[in-house]
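Interim report, section 4.2 (structural modelling).
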Amino acid sequence: MAAAGGTRGSITAGRPLPARRSAPMEPAANDLPLNSSAAPVQPAVAAVAAVPAIEAPRVSVAAIGAPTRPSRPDARPMRLAFGAASLAAVSVMTVGFVRPELEQALGGTETVDEPQATDAAQRTEVRRVTRYVFLKRGERAPKGATVISPDRASQPRGKQNARNRRNVAPVPTRERVPQPAAAQPEAPKAPKPKVTTRQSGG
Amino acid sequence: MQAPDSGIVSWSTPSMGGTLGIALVTSEEADGERAVEAARRTGHRVNSWAERLTRFTDRSDLAALNSDRGSEVVVRPTLASVLSWAEVAERQSQGMVRPTLLDQRLAAEHGTDTPRTERGSWRITPRNRAAAVVQRSPGVHFDLDGLAKGWLADRAADLLRGWAGAAVDADGDICLHVDAGVEWLIDVADPRSAQTHSDTAAPLATLRIRGNNPWRQTYGVATSGTSVHRWGDAHHLIDPRTGKPAETDVVQATVVAPTAREAEVIAKTAVIVGSDAALGFLDKSAALAAMLLLESGDVACLEGIESWLA
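Predicted structure of the assembly:
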């Protein structure tokens, strides 16, 4: 019967489509029984209804032995990688272009503390950036700013916490020397002892 | 010794044929007594070292070395350390400052014939932690003098590092330790003044050493010249090229350097070589600042002296 031929499998991209639900077939016009003259003509619907529903066979490429194309690798991880790399490159360029101007605008130098050496088990790195703005004579510090003398500004600052203090080798702190001329003048509080250098026996 | 009410404790004692002075800056009133004790203890150590390094007593290590006729002599650590520095100083001064000019100096002092000037070779080799061996050619005698004073000033200042400010004046060669916020004023004595050794004499200049450099907290200041130790026309600074007192137009040189011993060697070299060669030498040396008083009365300074003047 043409019913089997009527449920054709469709092949799409090597994957079988989900099977269609089998539905009662409506008879075509020329699909009448041959002995239609002997038998009273029945409504086609009734005849068809007697036909048991046939499950459409699932057809797959493998099943029919059709030539196969190798499956392509998933492009999504690579796209993600390219995206991240592009983002990083743009970030680096942005910093390169913008930062020097920012420093010039502030007229100060930057003090970068080196990352602390840590225990092998502790991978935490501490990085703090302190920006000094040198005030010229007569200038006032911005509201809320902590004003320190240039001498104190150049002192290394401790930044280890109690947890990573063990077995940590001291790391030299790289700091730029503040320009004394531009720093706020501050009279030393300590007395000024005086000694004399003179010719000796040497 | 001064009362510690001003934040500065000063202590001095006769030493090295002159005076050893120690001054400490105290941050609290209660530190006064502690500072006096630290200065006294340091002074005694300096004196005990100086007693091993002087040529004016027969009991010193230096006298023992000079009286030994052997070509190899074992010396104790203090003398070994100063002789090691003397080796370095000879190189740094391009041969102008040598510890082996004792005989020439004595000849100048006594007005006798100058001994031959050919260079006696010597070297010092560490033997173990406690001693070293001096190897020398025959006839080599040592005179440490200013080399020892600079070394003593530096060693003493090392012992006083815990203080906010410390000054060790080893009879003119000064080592300073300066913390942030501390300033030292150094009067440069004017040799033309009859009252050079008086505090009331007008100084040639006053240098200011400020503790605002995080990389450097120790400075040396030393002065050398031809006007103090004189015997007629002769003076005590021997030119090793001639074996005689240096003929120079530099009356006095004052140098600021990273250490007192370097300052002393540089200042002495500047006097010996004369002003023409001195300025070139100073430029290449470790001098941070330098001031030369010339026979003409002019004062020649290394560039940048303004920042050191009070």
